[in-house]
Each structure stands twice: as structure tokens, then as C-alpha cells.
Amino acid sequence: xxxxxxxxxxxxxxxxxxxxxxxxxxxxxxxxxxxxxxxxxxxxxxxxxxxxxxxxxxxxxxxxxxxxxxxxxxxxxxxxxxxxxxxxxxxxxxxxxxxxxxxxxxxxxxxxxxxxxxxxxxxxxxxxxxxxxxxxxxxxxxxxxxxxxxxxxxxxxxxxxxxxxxxxxxxxxx
Length: 174
Hints:
Shape: elongated
Distance between the termini: 94 Å
Helix content: 40-55%
Order of helices and strands: HHHHH
Number of domains: 2
């Protein structure tokens, strides 16, 4: 294999050493044209990004809106971790309450429901699903995370043998 040294241009075409890179009868005329003379944009070749996309990236990097959002995202990431701790405390206290009283504490249940909805709002904001900032920049969430309680409710069951029930046909007797 012929080694031409480190004489490759950005396009990937390599030049032979100057002693080989001569036409017969021509003193200084290279066999290969210079990239700029051939109309090749060296900046696009080096970065692999067309100039229009590069300008769009620069605009995004200097956008005030983007940098303000990242500050809010950091704030809500910290709040998310605090809320995670609150959920653990609510779950433990709810368990202990149920253990000793035999009943679910309705106030803790409502708090857990609200905190769950709040976590959902934070997650939606952090993952760019929405641009609406959660509490304290908006009211505390009232609904359940996701579709709501009505969408998750099971249809009422009817007793077996009644209309609409899921009774099996009677077994045949011999």
C-alpha cells in the first residue's frame, strides 16, 4: 500500500507527496483541486451540519425562553424529590393508621390523591408534555392523575342469574 502521509483534505481525498503530485511538464499544478475552488463548504464538511441547521441550533442555544425553562425544570426536579419523600411519609402513616384503627384515614387518602396528581403535573412539565408550570405557579391540582376516578371505575356487577349477569348455563342432569 502506498502511504501518502497526512495529506488528506476534508472531503477524504488524499494527495500523494509533492514529488508524485506533478503532471509531466507542469511545475506547480496539483492533480486535485482545492476544496474552496471546487465550491465545497468546509464548515459543513467539518461539522456535518448544513449552515441553516447550524443557525437554528445557535438560535436555540441563545433563546432566553429555553434557559428560563431549564431553571424551572431544575426547581421542579428538586420539588419532585421532596414530594417523593412526602408520599413515603403519607404511605407509612396511612399503613400505621390502618394497622391500629382498622380503617383508612380519609384525610391522608385525600392528601395522597392530591400529591399524586401534583407529581403527575410535575412529570408532564419535566417531560415537555406541557408548558404549564405546576403549583405554586398554578392552582393545586384537584383531579386524579391521568383520566380521573370515573374512567377507572369498574362497571357495577349484577348478581348471577339476573339480567345482564354473567351466569353460566345450568348443568344438565341425567
